[in-house]
Structures are given as structure tokens and as C-alpha cells.
Amino acid sequence: MKEELSLLEKNKKYVWQPFTQMKEWVENDQLIIERGEGIKLYDTAGNEYYDGVSSIWLNVHGHQKKELNEAIKEQLDRVAHTTMLGLASVPATELAEKLVEITPSGLNKVFYSDSGSTAVEIALKMAFQYWQQIDGNYGAKNKFITLKNAYHGDTVGSVSVGGVDLFHQIYKPLLFDSLKAPSPYCYRCSFEEEKDKCNFSCIKELEKMIKKQHKKIAALVIEPLVQGAGGMITAPEGYLAKVRELCDKYNVLMIADEVAVGFGRTGKMFACEHEEVSPDIMTVAKGISGGYLPISATLTTDEIYNAFYDDYASQKTFFHGHSFTGNPLAAAVSLANIKLFEEEEIIEEMQDKIELVKDKLEDFKKLSHVGDIRQQGLMIGIELVKEKASKEEYSWEERIGVKVCMVAREKGMIIRPLGNVVVFMPPLCSRKGELVEMLDIIYDSIIDITE
Ligand SMILES: *Cc1c(COP(=O)(O)O)cnc(C)c1O
């Protein structure tokens, strides 16, 4: 007779978890989440936890948000999915109009896919093909320039423009080459002359690289304001605008990857707005559906779109599309998400919360193993160091970030680190009291592990 396995046993027997060493997973106890409500998650044993990473940076209005649930149900009663290959759909059309309306000016065309990685793949192919198809001698513009510590997804193309060695090193032989400019990592700035104050040496280095090779560079890819997965690395004020200037000066397209920073995360709807930047191509995913369903979009300008717009025989079609491109359920919930941003004044409401978090984080600075605290809106990274004065890092084997997050879990909050950086990414709807409680848990967890 077949033995009935527990749910956890089944998980360990059949599932290969993402970004996970399965030996460690299988040898340890694991949570199985059964439901969520507001900013709390509940496991199968009935324990509750704050969703302190917004289910990996996605969630905006909390779980089981009435308006979002209803938008999906209403669409479900019409149709769950129809293809966009040769057909249009109602919600994907309406969402495109809305996206053009809310994104930086000039982004007038919307190309859908279903994850941040695919949105980036599309941006890369679009930029590459654009230069092949416009008049003039631009065929050699086929390379990308990106930043160290960049993260743009896990598919082969998006990994090729990534710069997090831990994730990307092994795949090197599979990847196409991209130019890697310095990261605007002020806390660990590698430029000697920057010791006392920032002179934008990283930008000067970037300019040198672009100046030398712009004839070969199709586009620059950047996470505006914050390099997320690289460790919540916040760029100094003015950095993004300077990058835009360089792209203009050297005729290089600017691809802004707003997958993590978009949809309110940084305190404005899109991070580019902080420096009044309009990219040539912009990718959005994560928060687009309020964190409900997988959908993403790559937006671009009329100029790029028009380079593909011709008679079929000219062979300028953009041959790209996924089975679930522009899924109607996901598009419907995304529309409802954007409506909630407006109705509940999410961005306005966030401003006080951002200040509150900033004040609370002041206390963390006194801790002997907190080296740097980086915040942009409700996107926070706390970098732990072995020794404060020398900024000596904990070795990766110590897994200090993981340890802190496991203690936080015992205290009732789910968070996930990036190496030695403890990440706090609460859902944007979190109330002030909840933010304080979550920050207290992080504070106590850091003390438990490091003091
Ligand atoms: C998460 C992320 C991606 C990848 O998105 P997926 O939906 O996980 O494929 C791409 N770019 C940035 C900046 C991200 O944070």
C-alpha cells in the first residue's frame, strides 16, 4: 500500500526550490504557506508572519485585497487566457493605455511578457534590432554596457547583462559579453580620490568606457536609483540624470529596468521620476499586478517602435512572444492595482511612512555590526560588517544574513537577505504601527546574532 506522505515530505520529495541549495532545504524544517491576509502570511501550522519582503518585492496592497480579488474573479467569468498572437484582448489593451499614461513621457508603446527576466530579454533584443534596422551605419552597435552588481533576471540574456558574480559566474561560457562599468556603491567606493567626498568618479569611469566604445554599444542597462539584488545599493543623487546625459551624448539607448523599483517602491511611481529621466526602454514587472499574477511589460518610444514598422516583406517584424504574453487575468488585476494606487493615494500615503522608517533606522546605526544603512522609499538594505571601522565583511560561509533572517522568522516575520545585507521590503500598504513592529523584529534579530 502506498504510504501517505505529509505535505512537507511531498515538497521535499518532488519540488526543486528556486535559488536554493536543496540539501540544506531537505535537511531542515520548512514553512509551507497556506494563506495570506493583509501583510500577514499564515503557515499550515497556523503560525502568522509579517510578509517583510513583500513575497520577494512584489506585494503592494497586501494579500486578499478585496478589489484585486474581485478584478480577477470578474475577468475569470469572461475568459482566463486568450493569446495575443494574432488577437487582442480587452484588459491588455486597456492596461497598455494606462501604462503609457503613468510612465515617464515618451514611452508610448507596450510589449508584454510574463516576468522581469523576459521583459529584460525583450528590451535587449529590441535595442539590438533597432540599431540593425535604422538608416545609417549603426550595425556595429550590438553590445550592452551594464554595471557591476547589476541584476536583471535569470534567463541567459538577462544574466549576460548581470553583474552579481555569485549568481552569474558559473554561466560565463554561455553568456554574451557585456561591458561592466563600476557600481555606484558609495559605502565601498573603490576610487581613491573619493575618500572624503563624492566626485562621481564612477560616472567619469563610465563616460571613459562609453566614449571609447560607443560605436559598438547598443544600450546601457540600469536599475534606476537602487541596484536591488546586488545588495540594495543606492546611487548618489544626480547619478541617474548623469547616466541619461551620457546616453544622449554618445547615442546609446538607455534601458531602465524598473522591475524592482517601479510601482511606488522608491516613493514615486517610478524611480526615473526622481531625476526626471525618460529612458528609451523601460521594463516593469514585480509590482505591476500588485504582486498577484505574473505579468511584465517592456515600454518604448515611438522612435524605436517606428524602426520596426514597415511592410512585412521588409523583415523588420519583432519576432518575440510567449504563450502567456499579456495574460488577461494578470492584465485585469494590474488595472485594478493601478486604480488602487490612485484611489488610496498610495504614493502620498507612503511619504510619512518613509520618514518614519528613516527615523527608526537611526537606532540601527549604533549597533556595532551595522556598517551601512541604505534606504530609498520602502526599499531598505542593512549591511552587516564584521568590523565597523575597517568595514571588514563577514565571510560568505558565516551566512550572517541568513542567520538574522531565521531569527526574525522565529519572531514572526519573513525576510530574506542578500548576502550580508538584511533586506526590508514591506508591502507599500503597511501601516505605521506595523512598520515599527517589523523594524523592531529586525533590530532584535540583528542583536541576537551579532552582539
Ligand atoms: C527581480 C528582478 C528581475 C527579474 O524579474 P523576474 O520576474 O524574477 O524574472 C529583473 N530585474 C530586476 C531589477 C529585478 O529586481
TrEMBL record:
Using the UniProt record, name the top-level EC class of this enzyme in a single word. transferase
SUPFAM superfamilies in alphabetical order: PLP-dependent transferases
User: Where does the source fall among the domains of life?
Assistant: Bacteria
Cited PANTHER family? ADENOSYLMETHIONINE-8-AMINO-7-OXONONANOATE AMINOTRANSFERASE
Annotated Pfam families: Aminotran_3 (PF00202)
N6-(pyridoxal phosphate)lysine carried by residues: 286
**Residues that hold pyridoxal 5'-phosphate according to the record:** 116-117, 257, 322-323
Its Gene Ontology biological processes? biotin biosynthetic process
Which cellular component appears as one GO term in the record? Answer: cytoplasm
Give compartment(s): Cytoplasm
Marked site: Participates in the substrate recognition with KAPA and in a stacking interaction with the adenine ring of SAM: 19
Q: What is this protein called?
A: Adenosylmethionine-8-amino-7-oxononanoate aminotransferase
Coiled-coil region(s) at which residues? 340-367
> Catalysed reaction per UniProt?
(8S)-8-amino-7-oxononanoate + S-adenosyl-L-methionine = S-adenosyl-4-methylsulfanyl-2-oxobutanoate + (7R,8S)-7,8-diammoniononanoate
Q: What is its EC number?
A: 2.6.1.62
Q: Which UniProt keywords apply?
A: Aminotransferase, Biotin biosynthesis, Coiled coil, Cytoplasm, Pyridoxal phosphate, S-adenosyl-L-methionine, Transferase
Q: Which organism is it from?
A: Orenia marismortui
Q: Which CDD domains match?
A: OAT_like
The family assignment reads:
Belongs to the class-III pyridoxal-phosphate-dependent aminotransferase family. BioA subfamily.
Q: What pathway does the UniProt record associate with this protein? A: Cofactor biosynthesis; biotin biosynthesis; 7,8-diaminononanoate from 8-amino-7-oxononanoate (SAM route): step 1/1
Could you tell me one molecular function GO term of this UniProt entry?
A: pyridoxal phosphate binding
Q: How does it assemble?
A: Homodimer.
Q: What role does it play?
A: Catalyzes the transfer of the alpha-amino group from S-adenosyl-L-methionine (SAM) to 7-keto-8-aminopelargonic acid (KAPA) to form 7,8-diaminopelargonic acid (DAPA). It is the only aminotransferase known to utilize SAM as an amino donor.
Amino acids binding substrate: 151, 286, 321, 416
Under NCBIfam families, the record lists:
bioA (TIGR00508)
Cofactor dependence is on: pyridoxal 5'-phosphate
